[in-house]
Design a protein that fits this description.
The protein has 472 residues and is α+β, with helices and mostly antiparallel strands. It is built from 12 helices and 12 strands. A hairpin with a 2-residue loop joins β11 (443-450) and β12. The longest helix is centred in the middle third of the chain and has 54 residues, at 219-272. The relative contact order is 0.06. It is an enzyme of class 2 (transferase). Pfam families: HATPase_c (PF02518), HisKA (PF00512). Keywords: Membrane, Phosphoprotein, Transferase, Transmembrane, Transmembrane helix.
Length: 472
């Protein structure tokens, strides 16, 4: 019994059930009209026999009672009325065993009426006396009517119905089996193949040999297999990339750990440069110390990122003019004598609520990307940083006159190792910048890009800052 229940829960089992139901419906649709048609033919044959019997009386008005009873018995009726005109009726009669139960006029009966009358006779075992009216054969009168019993009619209908059921059952069963085998071959087996391919793939998604190869002959199933292959291919590639990223993350974390120790030592020596009497050293020492401090902070952040955790921003007041000036001054050291100019439009009194180290990394990444894009063209250019404040947010835009972003970079803009904006780039800078701004509750957008240059815009909302001000 459990096996039967398990089979009926499969696609083949459900289709078998549906096939059986549809075959039964087809049986009913075949059986009812056929039996109704047989009943009509049966009654018409009785009318024809009765008409033939009445013709004997037409030929000879004087026939004995025995011959009349024989004619009626041969026609299997009790009475015959043949109306040839309005003035004359020819009648054959014998005793009727009971009252007339119903009258059926076959001259204008519709299909549904015939089927309803046939079903009532078939399912009523009581022997009834009925009157049947019809048209005479070859228009030999106006009408003919007979009185007869239903028992013989019902027995003949049951016999005919059983033969119809047997024949239709054989034909329907054969059709159902052929249809079941065809659907099983063209639908169920391909679906089972797709399910088996998915099950096999889930066991080892990194194994490209388990990716399904579309072979279905049915177009819809073939399209489903194509979609499944595309999904499996992309998923396998993504898993391989994530595995490589995990390995790279482990390596970077180890390097960052050792590099942090080295930079910490360098920071100790750099601190001593503050006491130097050399004016040039005294001017460069604070910048050197700040650069080493940022490098140490970056190593620590990389270690945290390797744990899939970006440290939450430590929000404080940041004077944007000082931050932007520091970024631009650092970038000027990298251009040497290259014809590249910097422009900044940042109000001196503009103070934003942000993490200074993280915001410096974001602006520095954007400016550095712009510088590298312009220098890669070998042409002169300009980088502009503009900061504004509205009632809802602070915005910082970084624009350049470079060649614009390539299509691949625009498609995977903030995805690591896919959204590189220049040849040889890995797209890490934009990915990190996007995540850092997102940690502030803000947004980093590509505002415009094309042959005339590229503009990125940083949006830092004030809502969190306002909430903190209320709490304080």
């Amino acid at each position: 019994m459990p096996r039967v229940a398990s089979f009926l829960n499969t696609l083949s089992g459900r289709f078998l059930i549906l096939t059986t139901v549809f075959v039964l419906i087809a049986e009913v649709l075949i059986f009812v009209p056929s039996v109704a048609r047989y009943r009509e033919d049966f009654l018409l044959s009785r009318l024809e026999r009765a008409q033939i019997a009445s013709l004997a009386l037409l030929a000879n008005d004087m026939i004995d009672i025995g011959l009349e009873d024989e004619l009626l018995a041969n026609a299997e009726v009790f009475n015959v009325v043949l109306r040839r005109d309005e003035l004359r009726q020819l009648v054959l009669s014998s005793p009727v065993p009971g009252p007339i139960y119903a009258t059926y006029d076959l001259r204008d009966a519709g299909a549904f009426t015939l089927m309803g009358d046939a079903m009532r006779v078939l399912f009523d075992p009581t022997n009834r006396v009925i009157r049947v009216i019809g048209d005479p054969v070859k228009k030999a009168g106006l009408l003919i009517e007979v009185t007869m019993e239903t028992q013989g009619l019902r027995v003949a209908m049951i016999d005919y119905g059983l033969r119809i059921l047997a024949l239709s059952a054989v034909l329907s069963g054969l059709t159902a089996v052929l249809l079941f085998l065809a659907v099983r071959s063209f639908v169920v087996k391909p679906v089972r193949r797709v399910v088996d391919a998915m099950t096999s793939y889930t066991q080892a998604p990194e194994d490209a040999r388990r990716i399904i190869e579309p072979t279905a002959g049915v177009r819809e199933l073939y399209e489903a297999e194509l979609a499944l292959r595309t999904m499996q291919t992309e998923l396998t590639s993504a898993l391989r990339q994530k595995d490589r990223l995990a390995q790279l993350g482990g390596a970077v974390a180890k390097i960052s750990h050792d590099l942090r120790n080295i930079l910490t030592t360098a920071q100790l020596f750099a601190d001593r440069l503050d006491a130097s009497e050399d004016p040039a050293v005294a001017r460069a020492a604070p910048k050197l110390v700040n650069s080493i401090h940022r490098a140490v902070s970056l190593c620590e952040t990389t270690l945290a990122f390797g744990k899939a955790q970006e440290p939450p921003p430590a929000l404080t007041g940041v004077r944007l003019s000082d931050l932007v000036a520091d970024v631009i001054e650092s970038e000027r050291l990298a251009i040497d004598d290259y014809d590249l100019s910097f422009a900044e439009d940042v109000p001196a009194t503009l103070v934003a609520r942000a993490d200074p180290e993280q915001l410096y990394r974001v602006v520095s990444n954007l400016v550095r990307n712009a510088r590298q894009a312009i220098m890669a063209t070998g042409k002169s250019g300009e980088i502009a940083v503009v900061a504004l404040e509205t009632s809802d947010e602070w915005t910082i835009s970084v624009s350049d006159t470079g060649p614009g972003l390539p299509p691949k970079a625009r498609e995977h803009l903030f995805q690591p190792f896919q959204g590189g904006t220049r040849k040889g780039g890995f797209g890490l800078g934009l990915a990190i910048a996007f995540e850092l701004i997102k940690g502030h509750g803000g947004q980093l957008d590509l505002q415009d890009t094309g042959a005339g240059g590229t503009t990125f815009c940083i949006h830092l909302p004030k809502a969190v800052a306002a909430l903190e001000a209320v709490v304080e």
